[in-house]
Amino acid sequence: MDKRVQAVLEAQHSVGERTPLIDGIEKVTGRARYTADLPLRQPLIGRMLRSPVAHGLIRAIHTERARALPGVRAVITGADFAAPYGVIPIAQNEWPLARDKVRYRGEPIVAVAAVDEATALAALALIALDIERLPAYFSAADARAPDAVDLHAKKPGNLEREVDQLFGDADAGFAAADLVLEQNFHYAEVAHGQIELNTAIAEFEPETGRLTTHSVTQVPYYLHLTLAQCLAMDASNIRVIKPFVGGGFGHRVEPLNFEIVTAALARAAGGTVKLEVTREEGFLTHRGRPETDVRMKIGMSKRGELLAVDCEVTQRGGAYAGYGLVTILYAGALLHALYKMGAVRYHGLRVYSNTPPCGAMRGHGAVDVRHAFESVLDAMAEQLGLDAFAVRRANLLVPPERTLNDLQVNSYGLPACLDWVEKASGWRERHGKMPRGRGLGLACSHYVSGSAKPVHWSGEPHAVIQLKLDFDCGITILTGASDIGQGSSTLLTQVVAEVLSLPMGRIRVVATDSALTPKDNGSYSSRVSFMVGNAALRAAQNLLALLIAAAAKKLGVSAEQIEWLGERCVVMGGSLDSEKGLDFAAVVEAALVDTGSLMVKGSWSTPIETQGGKFRGAAVGSTAGFSYAAQVIEVSVDEDTGVVTVEQVWVAHDCGRAINPLAVEGQIQGAVWMGLGQALSEETQYFEGLPLRANFLDYRIPTIVESPPIAVHLVESIDPLGPFGAKEASEGSLHGAPPALTNAICAALGLRLSELPASPDRVLDALVALKRKQRQQQRKQASTEGD
Amino acid sequence: MSKHLLALNVNGQPREDAVADGLLLVDYLREVTGLTGTKQGCDGGECGACTVLIDGAPHLACLTLAATCEGRHIETIEALTVEGRMGRLQQAFHEHLGTQCGFCTPGMIIAAEALLRREPKPSEAQIRDALSGNLCRCTGYVKIIESVQAAAQQHG
Lengths: 787, 156
Prior knowledge:
The complex is a heterodimer of chains A (787) and B (156). Chain A is of the alpha+beta class and 787 residues long. Chain A folds into three domains: 182 residues, Aldehyde oxidase/xanthine dehydrogenase, molybdopterin binding domain (Aldehyde Oxidoreductase, domain 4, 2-Layer Sandwich); 168 residues, Aldehyde Oxidoreductase, domain 3, CATH 3.90.1170; 235 residues, 2-Layer Sandwich (Aldehyde Oxidoreductase, domain 4), CATH 3.30.365.10. Chain A is 30% helix and 24% strand. The longest helix of chain A has 28 residues. The model of chain A has no long low-confidence stretch (mean pLDDT 96). Chain B is of the alpha+beta class and 156 residues long. A five-stranded mixed β-sheet of chain B has the order 2-1-5-3-4, with helices on both faces. Chains A and B meet through α2 and α18 of A and α2, α3, α4 and α5 of B.
């Protein structure tokens, strides 16, 4: 075959192909360098001293002896920072090292940099802290008690944020309902448990005043801003680089104390500092999903229509704001946009407590509320004699739809998701007919494809991509998007390759180096595929237009006459090997005439109609595209031990369009599994503020032994705004896993759990309580009959 | 801390290094030999990311003193490439997405390598058993099992 013809045929489609990660070879061979792996010449070693008390006034910090220790190069405290930090501009109340007050046990107070670890640790041992203890609160209820001391000034009652929302006439909805059910739920705090330890490296050059920081962040741009603010540095003197990152899941979606402290140590020492924290310290900085109480009340017609919802959520947010106000707003906002609803009342309380600050964990804000909702829905369907599928199908949306709270739903693959899991799980044949102790449970869920309004609203586009094309005929994607294992760099390569009909081998990615790559808000709220994907699509289209124009000029025809085939282009109607055509190299050569090296940009912003309503907090939950998912989980429960085993999961996810079906499957499996971890075994725990499970033996992430097969089906609803129709492809499926699990436990044993995780002790306690209740009812019945 | 001369074999190369008595094997590999493919993800024996082969058997390098490896053969993830190309497990993990963030991957592949050497055609239960000490937070393990199965098939 002619080489040219073959090249064109090889430039097959990239979008929709099962594509291994472009950085996968480095990962499997051990060549990938994570922050801790970066080669350094004798860096100073940083370490932090943490508070032994949960709440107290710092009266004095005695560092003189530590400073005098040979080998110690810097000792810093909160006084060495110019400003506090916090990812939400209006809620910055945390210092990288505590100032004046400590608010949780383990909060860092002093940091040292020394020639080696032993010296750094010896220096910490020489520091004396004088802290006056204050009353400390480890639950939301205690922190809200009338006589409780406030953790923060101007936050009376330890209330970080209260949300009151009413959409529609809830009272009328409940009055019209044939069945109203109200239940209370309690959810333990959970943490991300990314396997890579937190590490940062900062290099400060005293002569130039320049700082370079490498860190494990999901948000290098936010880190950059925060470093400038906390260190009072000009942002142009800072460079932030994100190397390979070993997982995030939301742990790293806000700048964290260790990163800022490392930079401050480097500046104080005038050199390079490496700070690796332990796993235990990682749990102290967890920023996980808060301990949450939910009261859920639903009013339903006898046909299963959702007439009214009344939901109250209380989150124990920990000691500082972090993402807290967003979390409590998400909990209410995402009551909407999954089903049609008559009216929704929401009351949310975000409470400060003397525990490590919570933050954004995968499925941010809405996971616990979704569990409560799907649990009550399931119970109501049962009481009304409706099938679990029927009750959900009675409330489907019809896109395009504007929800009660002004969220825009443009594509909606939930019906197809329901159909697939119903069939794949054998629901019709098996549900309700299984032996005691075994059952199937269903739940639906959804999530955003990025927040339609970014945290730092600057008026810039939501995403920007640059493409560089030069003499070598290679295309370099310059992106600030953080690949943290989800495969975003691979996806961007596929998108660019698809538009240009080029093989992916022609394309490289240079990512997340603030000196080289355009600003990007970061990898969170499932924004990258949708937003950065759209920017990459537009950048590639812009480059394509340039290339076609150059080819047309060279061939002496109009641009419309060029048939673009990637590795070769021809004049319309001509054969691939016709003389009236150009190889890609010749096109590039023509395109570089007079201009030289080409840099082409693409950007994307969410359309205004997707940015939510006008009420306070309306931005949270708004998105350009919602993903949808349904899942059925099969469990077996051992009544003697309380051990719940997940036998199989069937999950269907509407991801709009699967740009990389392999990666989408992997994301969905991982997300469902993470939801199961929360549902089955994961919880942090504190005694007087002291973490009791700050390691991977006591914080029970499921191992491969207890992890089920997860069958994934992708529904492609082709979203009108997504790149090639693509939408979110993981967090949406996480939300449904906990309720599908507990609904299955109910099918197995008639037991409705109101608390997660469904650990063996909780299952046994609930079983005992259920049996006691049943015995009492029997006795009552018997005595009534006796009368 | 006093140092002693340690003679051992790392990835086929005999080495002699003066190491402190308290130096852990994981730190020896990462800091002395520069083999950073072996990862540390916990404070000791929790996650399995540092799994290496010592005389062919999987061990946690974070719970092993380097000094106890005198005369032993250590194999790390870097040793599994064949003539500079991915070995069978590495290729399978790459192609079947047994790796996402990649941080647990070296330990996971080493543990799987030990299994396949012992049991070339493992059952799914044997795979689960052999990898039970290796935590992954990304994949839900589904594609890890598929990757090991694919590597085993390729071997046949």
